[in-house]
Amino acid sequence: MCRFLAYRGDPIFLEELVAAPCHSLIHQSLHAVEAKTETNGDGFGIGWYGERPEPGLYRELRPAWSDENLRSICAQVRSHLFFAHVRAATGTATSRANCHPFAQGRFLFMHNGQVGGYAGIRRRIEAMIPDALYATRAGTTDSEAIFLAALANGLADEPVAAMACTLGAVKRHMQETGTDEPLRFTAALTDGEHLWAFRWACDAKPPTLYFRETRDALVVVSEPIDGKRDGWQEVPKGCTLVARRGRGLSLECLNEAMARAA
Amino acid sequence: MCRFLAYRGDPIFLEELVAAPCHSLIHQSLHAVEAKTETNGDGFGIGWYGERPEPGLYRELRPAWSDENLRSICAQVRSHLFFAHVRAATGTATSRANCHPFAQGRFLFMHNGQVGGYAGIRRRIEAMIPDALYATRAGTTDSEAIFLAALANGLADEPVAAMACTLGAVKRHMQETGTDEPLRFTAALTDGEHLWAFRWACDAKPPTLYFRETRDALVVVSEPIDGKRDGWQEVPKGCTLVARRGRGLSLECLNEAMARAA
Amino acid sequence: MCRFLAYRGDPIFLEELVAAPCHSLIHQSLHAVEAKTETNGDGFGIGWYGERPEPGLYRELRPAWSDENLRSICAQVRSHLFFAHVRAATGTATSRANCHPFAQGRFLFMHNGQVGGYAGIRRRIEAMIPDALYATRAGTTDSEAIFLAALANGLADEPVAAMACTLGAVKRHMQETGTDEPLRFTAALTDGEHLWAFRWACDAKPPTLYFRETRDALVVVSEPIDGKRDGWQEVPKGCTLVARRGRGLSLECLNEAMARAA
Amino acid sequence: MCRFLAYRGDPIFLEELVAAPCHSLIHQSLHAVEAKTETNGDGFGIGWYGERPEPGLYRELRPAWSDENLRSICAQVRSHLFFAHVRAATGTATSRANCHPFAQGRFLFMHNGQVGGYAGIRRRIEAMIPDALYATRAGTTDSEAIFLAALANGLADEPVAAMACTLGAVKRHMQETGTDEPLRFTAALTDGEHLWAFRWACDAKPPTLYFRETRDALVVVSEPIDGKRDGWQEVPKGCTLVARRGRGLSLECLNEAMARAA
């Protein structure tokens, strides 16, 4: 289990959310409250959009709490859209390539969850990735594989449908191999403009996901970064929070999308 | 605050204590129980004696819990005398050179504690290190500086007196700069043959220290590695456990040694 | 292109070959002579056999020349059979999981060479790895994939035939995708007892490989560790040097083995 | 010996100098031409000024040539003033804290050179650093120590005089300890506005230093980043290139400044 945050709004320094608040993401790397694991010390990553269509990426295998570079970069970089993630590994190695967020072209993706019995179905999930994208597969995580498979399933055009289709396929692979462990998927996706935040699990126990909308900004988090509940709304289980630029927020049902995709 | 263990006895694979027990040192890197900090993820180190008078050393800035090399080395190396340490930094950077144990010639040293107001008296403590040893000062911790200063004060000949003398001097430096923070010192030292384990604090709150003696071995730990209290004895506050090869264990009073040194 | 060495014989400290000679493997990490790249600074690894059937492994992504741990471990560990490798990456990331040697059960494997057009046929090579082994695929290199595929092709029973079969299959995948780049394969394999050293390329330009046999030991190297040619014999192109315990050295022709496998 | 570059001018993406040119600084990390060492693989660093008075800093102990984060950050960050440095260690460890540039408040400093017999006079140089600054001493290099000592000697007000005074003192310490090795000092300093580039050695063999001035920008380098000599001017031996904002470039004689300081 991991912790993450996504921000879209008026440009701010990353440190305002990543480092400064009492329950900032860096704080959560050592003291998460709502996670299965309190410590998220198996690497971290930030991804942000600046002047280019593709995001910048800084990922490192040290714990976030002791990384001087992270603090310095977050104090310098100002962005209207950024992701940050601290990792608690669930079976795969601690390496930069296994750290979130993952980038592909204009897209950023990060995940908190698990694919039950992943070691046994890893190749089946990877087989969903087309050759051209497979060459960019740099790590070994389920998260990166799902992202690449979803891109092949149309993530750029219909994110919710593409993700539903991908999760449905992963679930079928899990059923075929007979695992008892669940598929749980709380994730965030952006193309540098719009933002999607997913919360779904096959056993109705998806990891927590909150958002806070103000006049200036939307913040999506695993758990509130101010340590309070006021002002934060839960993304309902089974839903995707859709934040298209210039439009109001909306919720889409992932189960329905999965039924359509099946 | 950190966690450590020291072993002397019949040669065993390091993994028997470092990796295997339910509350092994690797487990404590993520879930310490008796420490001020539950997580000890700011690097780690092992030092061991094999066929040579000088110990081997493997120190790394990643957390112990995710280091594949640590597990592999501990599964291969068998030793009659070894130290292992997982670090929770108290103000100095996460780097290999700041990881314990520290080695000098035949000696190994590791520490759990704090020097109150260290940043302000660091140079005074370093001034206690003679030039020849100062060239080997590789990190910035109080622990390494105290070790090098104690070597200059006769650690090789009279370890308890040398350490008492050094701690007394550090305490005076602290008093002169008027810090309110305490000096706490729980540590282990060996020359590859004999073993000393110190537990002292100026405020009578030294970090915990336990030992277990069997027919085959002596184990000294910050907290029991089996998660139980049976079979473990506390090193009394203010005392040094002295384990000279071929002799029974004894306890020496550090305060008396400090009075003699003063 | 990389540099490596393999040793089998009377137990010696690893440092005698890895660190001490004027042209030691650590020296070659910075100043290789017979390689396409003079610098081999993209990580390194050592694997050695001690008291257990499985080898120990220390792999790290820093350059070998500046790694204090490597020097200390090589000064302590004495072994009758060990591998050491310094890496110059050819397209895949610098990470521990991409460092050689690779271990599987009792086996150690390391490689110097290239699979032309690897990015395009990576999945085809990975498809040769059975599910059970695929779960242990930790990195993204061609070398690791070939090793795992060869294990599936009978490496434990008939190493030369299994490797010939695997290389033949890789070559066919390369032909199908129409790459102009060559397949070059200089490698070493051991099960902790016997040793095989391969030197083959589809374009008759396999990387260099030498061996030196004395009464006490066999040493196999990419280039001589003493910087001299005396006493070193070249493994002929297209050949495998076979060093079964208790028997004399022999050379087997890989092309014949490939013809038989086809 | 190391390689570095400094830029001041119209804001550009760091990659335009650090990553893109045929002989970029990243290229020089593997293939320097005018240095004593071709490989500069002992860590690297970039420092840049954005919206804040203090610079951002990204330093890492991996070689620059294989660091994905460096490429991504350099592709995103646009700055009017930045430093970049690739390190070839001369006796001190490879760690982040030993990587250049060093930052203090608004200042950035980086160095290429050597202090002969440094191990023996390290403490004397450190003694030139006042207590308040000494608490920020994070590494063990001569370069960082000289920077901190120069700050104490008035670097903020009279950079050339302060550096001359500091180098003079270092030279005296060297003479007192009787080293035969030289003091060589090629370095760059900025406060986020003005830029100073020093080239001096006690034996008239200071490391190379070039600059190129165009209408839009000033670039200072250890060796030309385009692999050509056209358009580059050498900073004369014994001189400091002074580039105050809004004024023309000037050269100041360091020897004269040292004579005045003595």
TrEMBL record, chains A, B, C, D:
Domain Glutamine amidotransferase type-2 as annotated: residue spans: 2-262
SUPFAM superfamilies in UniProt: N-terminal nucleophile aminohydrolases (Ntn hydrolases)
Stored PROSITE patterns: GATASE_TYPE_2
InterPro entries: EgtC-like, Gamma-glu_amide_hydrolase, GATase_2_dom, Ntn_hydrolases_N
Keywords assigned by UniProt, alphabetized: Glutamine amidotransferase
PANTHER family given in the database record: GLUTAMINE AMIDOTRANSFERASE DUG3-RELATED
Name recorded for this polypeptide: Class II glutamine amidotransferase
Organism this protein belongs to: Chelatococcus albus
Coiled-coil segments: none
